[in-house]
Amino acid sequence: MGQVFYPYEPEQTLLLPPSLRDWVPEGHLAHFVSDTVDQLDLTALYARYEQREDGRGQLAYEPRLLLKLLIYAYAVGLFSSRKIAQAVEDLVPLRYLAAGQLPSHRTLARFRQEHIAQFRGCLSRWCGSRGRRAWWRWGRWPSMGRSRRPTRVSTRR
Length: 157
Prior knowledge:
The chain is mainly α. The protein has helices at 29-39, 43-46, 63-75, 81-90, 92-97, 105-114, 116-138.
């Protein structure tokens, strides 16, 4: 029987530093997102994936990994799947959340498109529980793609 997902082990040790968790300081938003998503009920996201009997096809990324990336990226103002994919390579907190894996922008966009209803449901449950307080504490609030900046009126002529 074939595998469905790439192996996902965020606590996997590396040569230097010993753990990906050590790359991000305690109390960082990435730890909060990771811990909170781990507590969510994600059966709706996993329902689409089934055990492959024939072993064909490429392995999928863990839905929990992709959800963590999207929530953190939205929280810091990254909405484009290309920018998120590039940020996974460049930004340490996103690299930590991805456990060293590098999903492509197509993977992120396809996941968001295929699971948008479940993603919004998870995000709204998360925001209703603990996320809103945390995002206010960090001074950020996700706008889900809409600009929340006030329009600036110039008084000079």
